[in-house]
Amino acid sequence: MDEKNQHLLKLLTANARESTSSLARKLNLSRTAVQERIHKLENQGIIAGYTVKLDNEYEKRLIKAWVTIKTRQKLNKQVVAAISRIEDVCSLRSISGIYDLIATVQAETPGKIDDVLDTIGAIEGIEKTISSIELSIKFER
């Protein structure tokens, strides 16, 4: 991937609704060239979709928790399927080490986080969990 496409991806990540004209000016390209690059990136599967960026003030009010999860290996697929149905779980990743998975949970209240943690802990096939609540963001890229 060339530098222009990398720069284009950074601009789109910051604001996926930025106009093609504005992107073209920032990249020193024509509008048509930017449209073609975006189209190619979509066709290659590099751009898989577009999403909503939450307002900073709203996002600051959300409570975030990371839940490391140890599973019984024979039930791992069922655990993943059950966790995927929990609305407040934003992501689930497989990790190395003594734990098998890490879930990111977001909710508006501590009580809701507690409910989600109880729901996760009650899933058949989960042996142990450890939860960490985000206190602050020091920096983000």
The CATH superfamily of the largest domain is Lrp/AsnC effector binding domain/regulation of amino acid metabolism (RAM) domain
| CATH architecture name of the largest domain | 2-Layer Sandwich
**What does the main sheet amount to?**
4 strands, antiparallel
How many helices? The count is 6
On the 0 to 100 scale, the average pLDDT is 94
Radius of gyration: 20 Å
Unreliable segments of 5+ consecutive residues: none
The CATH topology label of the largest domain is Alpha-Beta Plaits
Using the alpha-carbon principal axes, give the shape: elongated
**Helical content class:** 40-55%
Structural write-up:
With 141 residues, the protein is α+β, with helices and mostly antiparallel strands. It folds into two domains: 3-43, Orthogonal Bundle (Arc Repressor Mutant, subunit A); 56-133, 2-Layer Sandwich (Alpha-Beta Plaits). 43% of the residues lie in helices and 21% in strands. It contains six helices and four strands; from the N terminus they run H-H-H-H-E-H-E-E-H-E. It has helices at 3-14, 20-27, 31-43, 56-61, 76-84, 110-121, and strands at residues 63-71, 89-94, 101-107, 126-133. The protein has a four-stranded antiparallel β-sheet. Helix 2 (20-27) crosses helix 3 (31-43).
